[in-house]
Amino acid sequence: MKQLLLVLLLVSLTIQAQSQERKRAREYGIRIGVLPTGPLNAITDVAGVRVGHTTLIQGDAVRTGVTAIVPHPGNVFQQKVPAAVYVGNGFGKLAGSTQVQELGVLETPIVLTNTLGVGTALNAVVEYVLRQPGNETVQSVNALVGETNDGALNDIRGRHVTAPHVLAAIEQAQAGPVAEGNVGAGTGTVCFGFKGGIGTASRVVPAALGGYTVGVLVQTNFGGVLQINGAPVGQALKQFYLSQQLRDPADGSCMIVVATDAPLEARNLERLAKRAMLGLAKTGGIVANGSGDYVVAFSTHPGGRVPYGPTAMTQTTTTLTNEALSPLFLAVIEATEEAIINSLFRAETMQGKQRIEALPLDKVLKILKQHHAR
Predict the structure, then answer these.
(1) Is 202 a known active-site residue?
(2) Is the pLDDT of residue 316 over 50?
(3) Which of 27, 112, 179, 207 would you label with 66, given CA atoms 20 to 30 Å apart?
């Protein structure tokens, strides 16, 4: 009898946990923007893009990790992709950004981690590139590593991220659905005073305009006055920057990674990256003084690849005209906004150095319904 009761209790707890699982915004009927999503509504809807996470949750205060975004399945150093960086606010450490800005190409996976883990991650990415077949004579590697400061939850001074953690995130990166919330580089982050994390989304432009896909992945650790699909959620919850309680200090950072299969060169990728900041603004982010807000954008289109060892002095590439960019601008704004909201919806309450509550979805859904936002 006791065994039967125990089984029934375990079944009940399992059903309860499943029913309480936090879902993505779209699964609650929230439709942000007008463009359709890709099949997964993720950055991996851009063919060839892979994402990997290493999550570190140890003891009472280690709450951190690594997220890697790999642009294509081949040797990225040998077949570089067009890329650009846009700085919304430069209070941060985006290692490798100046060479991307100068040459307009990305030659390694993009790695995201915590602020004091950037040096370790940089060395690990270099190690990864040097040991890839075909790179035996390479003597210079421009690793691209971004960060946000997860010190509110994580023992950041302990510098718990190691090279094997970074290599694992890169080597385990895969296509398909992307884990969100308290995973990888989003394990210890805080957003709008609630638990932040990793979020992703995608948009597809109409076939008549190219049918291109834009995918976005974010690491959210910033603040402001939260809005969801236009509804004043932060105000309704009485938790926002400059509220009486000042429960959201607004400082932090947001890393935004944009991928597209559209044939874009570095100049127009930078224009695309700039529009991603509009998506952040639509969520109520204010890009505070102490917030490092960066966008890295790259194109996977084969016609734009740049070989490491060119055999000629000139190269012919395929690129969209300026006039063809506007649909992609809308796509990246919508995808960035939804990726940020997904990071909040999927994140769960976490206890680390302190306790950070997850966004209260029951209250939020009522607020959205009141404002006809779902």
Answers:
(1) no
(2) yes
(3) 27
